[in-house]
């Protein structure tokens, strides 16, 4: 799974961090960021829900093909 956060679109609402706090956080400026070691979202069933919760659709989740 690949998670991408469009920093130009993010408004810092924090819904991702509230929905999947084991994967997302907010940086010093209040914008969405991935926690270190969680860049692929593995192990969290809430990653897709966090992307859906984003009010400006700044988060995209895609399957990685190996």
UniProtKB/TrEMBL annotation:
Q: Which PANTHER family match?
A: FERREDOXIN (PTHR36923)
The cofactor named in the record is: [3Fe-4S] cluster
The record ties this protein, via SUPFAM superfamilies, to: 4Fe-4S ferredoxins
Q: Which domain of life is it from?
A: Bacteria
Organism name: Streptomyces chartreusis NRRL 3882
User: What role does it play?
Assistant: Ferredoxins are iron-sulfur proteins that transfer electrons in a wide variety of metabolic reactions.
Which UniProt keywords are listed? 3Fe-4S, Electron transport, Iron, Iron-sulfur, Metal-binding, Transport
Q: InterPro entries in the record, alphabetically?
A: 3Fe4S_ferredoxin, 4Fe4S_Fe-S-bd, Fe-S_cluster_ET
The Gene Ontology terms for molecular function here are: 3 iron, 4 sulfur cluster binding; electron transfer activity; iron ion binding
**Span of domain 4Fe-4S ferredoxin-type:** 1-29
Which residues belong to the signal peptide in this entry? none
Q: What is this protein called?
A: Ferredoxin
């Amino acid at each position: 799974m690949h998670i991408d956060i469009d920093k130009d679109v993010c408004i810092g609402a924090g819904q991702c961090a509230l929905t999947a706090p084991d994967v997302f956080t907010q940086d010093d400026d209040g914008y969405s960021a991935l926690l270190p070691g969680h860049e692929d979202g593995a192990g969290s069933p809430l990653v897709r829900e966090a992307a859906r919760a984003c009010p400006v659709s700044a988060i995209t989740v895609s399957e990685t093909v190996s």
